[in-house]
Amino acid sequence: QKEVEQNSGPLSVPEGAIASLNCTYSDRGSQSFFWYRQYSGKSPELIMSIYSNGDKEDGRFTAQLNKASQYVSLLIRDSQPSDSATYLCAPSRRETSGSRLTFGEGTQLTVNP
Amino acid sequence: GAVVSQHPSRVICKSGTSVKIECRSLDFQATTMFWYRQFPKKSLMLMATSNEGSKATYEQGVEKDKFLINHASLTLSTLTVTSAHPEDSSFYICSARGERGGGYEQYFGPGTRLTVT
């Protein structure tokens, strides 16, 4: 079993729709969860962090965390073509700077105009 | 988000030469920096973790004598690719992690595209 599993996609949604990206993780000790966006040929960009169960909203993005189910998701409302990118889920075990992130392989999202 | 700079953004070098890549955290103290490489359409691969003032911890399969990492201060880490060969051509990305905004978030530099001819 992979440490972090994401649907590889590609996930294709029409402009204005809600894009739903899912991630499951195997390490029950994970305490911090991050979503990164990576455009082709560019480095990853942190877009959301979540530490507690429940929802966290930031603009058009909502992260949802359920530690009991070992599941974290990212919803993108009113999807725009500029949201087309690969989204990486990254849990981290301990809340210290030295804790490494474990990246999923990413979900490729395409938003069609 | 926090700013992490990386220099150079692109470098072409001849086989057998060495290349140094700098990574700086500009607006927070990065107690830990990470170095990744990424091949086209592939996942990020962690190469090493470095803490300020101590030796880097390399991932399995990464040659520490080939990829020299120095983390001299809380804002600067360098990666030197020694005796580069064409198979070292890749996208190298650093990231910095430190306490910011109540949590330990990790921010990536823009990356360095290395081509060895």
Protein described:
The complex is a heterodimer of chains A (113) and B (117). Chain A contains no helices and ten strands. Chain A is mostly beta strands. Chain A starts with a strand and ends with a strand. With 117 residues, chain B is mainly β. Chain B contains no helices and eleven strands. In chain B, the strands form two sheets. In chain B, strands 2, 4, 5, 6, 9, 10 and 11 form a seven-stranded mixed beta sheet that branches. In chain B, strands 1-3-8-7 form a four-stranded antiparallel beta sheet, with no helix packed on it. The mean pLDDT of chain B is 90. The interface between A and B is medium-sized, with 24 and 24 residues.
Quick overview:
The complex is a heterodimer of chains A (113) and B (117). Chain A has 113 residues and is mostly beta strands. Chain A has strands at 4-6, 11-14, 19-25, 32-38, 45-50, 54-58, 61-66, 71-76, 85-92, 107-112.
Which properties best describe this structure?
heterodimer, A: 113 residues, mainly beta, 10 strands, 0% helix, B: 117 residues, 7-stranded mixed sheet, 4-stranded antiparallel sheet, globular
Which of globular, elongated, flat, extended, rod-shaped describes the shape of chain A?
globular
The topology string of helices and strands of chain B comes to EEEEEEEEEEE
Main beta-sheet annotation of chain A: 5 strands, antiparallel
Strand order of the largest sheet of chain A: 1-3-8-7-6
How confident is the prediction overall: mean pLDDT of chain A? 92
Helix count of chain A equals 0
Count of β-strands of chain B = 11
Helix content of chain A: under 10%
Q: What order do the helices and strands of chain A follow?
A: EEEEEEEEEE
The total of beta strands of chain A comes to: 10
Alpha carbon gap, first and last residue of chain A: 36 Å
Low-confidence stretches of chain A: none
Distance between the termini of chain B: 36 Å
The main β sheet of chain B shows up as: 7 strands, mixed
Protein structure class of chain A? mainly beta
The percentage helix of chain B is under 10%
Radius of gyration of chain A: 13 Å
Q: Structural class of the secondary elements of chain B? A: mainly beta
The number of helices of chain B is 0
Tell me the β content of chain B: over 45%
Shape of chain B: globular
